Amino acid sequence: MAQRKVTNATLNGKRFAPKENTYLKQFEPGLYLRVSPSGGKSFVTLYTFDGKQHWHTIGKFPAMSLATARRKLEEIQNLIADGKDPLQIKLEEKTNRINAPTVQEFVEVYLKKWAEPNKKSAKEDRRILEKDIIPKWGNRKLAGITRPEIISLLDEVAVRGPIMANRTLAVIRKMFNFAIKRGVLELSPCQNIEAPGKEVRKDRVLSFEEIKALWTIEFTDITRRALLTILATAQRPGEVTAMRWEEISDDWWTIPADKAKNGRMHRVFLNDTAKSLLGPVRKRGFVFPSRAEGQPINPNALARALRQRKARICKEPNDGELSFDFTPHDLRRTSASHMASLGTSRLVIAKILNHAEHEVTAVYDRYGYDREKQIALEAWGRKLSQVIHS
């Protein structure tokens, strides 16, 4: 029978009507239609491999069109010509699908094998994945997640905040890229997905009037002291909240390499203002402990406190000039900017901030700049005291 005379309508016609028993009818070379008594129809083919004949189901009709069945038949014939058994390949693909990890399973692989050993933000990665990814896709196969689904998820997160959606995309993209490196996936569904939110250059610096107002705002004691310690020391929020008493000796706080963002041990001079914020001196433990035993306050709690205060600002008109349109990290920038205005050089400020240096000379410069850092932070402490008590 000529191929062009067979159509999808033909396969639905009387010629292929169901009978009392299942039957096979070949309607063109290599291609059969299997019809069951219930009316179910499937495309099948008979092929010979290594001297043995095998029936191979191509797909169900009408879910699979005739044109698709013809294309699949050609692919099967090409495999046989290349010395490959289509049935064996089909069984291997089924096994791979069964053994393929779910999203929840691979989240743990990603966190244990990549994020925790390599990222200081591993806890934030876990929080994002447990909050938005696992509840939605946890039981799904990782390989089954599609690009439109990721875009839809990011749209949902963007309602809470476009920058949070950016962070979520970054974590998902890293996880799928890691899956490619481990041979779990061939392609990432995150490819060509643009960040949902526009990242703006952060340049918020609090004025001296705002700093004075901040000093009088009522937060919980630990939250207040941690926020102001960021301002007094110019250190990163996560490094301040993780401060331990064992790291403090006399007037110096030593941030261990495994806590520092750039992986280099860092010494911070504690001026009188900073020391007054640390609270009662203890021999060991966290300087800013959380309610959870043995844990420091989370830096996200500081940001949350500022957001909550901003939400209540209309009800509290006595906050003076303070609008709360800033983050904990902006306090670090504020310190650096005002130290510059006091005459501290950019090099010394960079040393105080413990910024990574990429110049060739940095490889040879192993001087610690402790004296310069102390002078700058003492001057900054005096200025803070003047502002607070003016």
3D structure, described in words:
Keywords: DNA integration, DNA recombination, DNA-binding. This is Site-specific recombinase XerD. GO terms for molecular function: DNA binding. There is one protein chain. The protein folds into 3 domains: 3-99, Double Stranded RNA Binding Domain, CATH 3.30.160.390; 103-181, DNA polymerase, domain 1; 208-389, Orthogonal Bundle (hpI Integrase, Chain A). The chain has helices at residues 8-11, 66-81, 86-99, 103-118, 122-137, 147-160, 162-181, 208-216, 221-233, 237-241, 272-277, 299-311, 328-341, 346-353, 360-364, 370-389, and strands spanning 23-28, 31-35, 41-49, 52-61, 248-249, 252-255, 266-269. The protein is elongated, with a radius of gyration of 32 Å. Residues 314-321 and 360-365 have low confidence and may be disordered. The chain has 16 helices and 7 strands. The longest helix has 20 residues, at 162-181. The chain is an alpha+beta fold and 390 residues long. Helix 4 (103-118) runs antiparallel to helix 5 (122-137) and helix 6 runs antiparallel to helix 7 (162-181). The strands form 2 sheets. Strands 1-2-3-4 form a 4-stranded antiparallel sheet. Helices cover 49% and strands 10% of the residues. A hairpin with a 2-residue loop joins strand 5 (248-249) and strand 6.
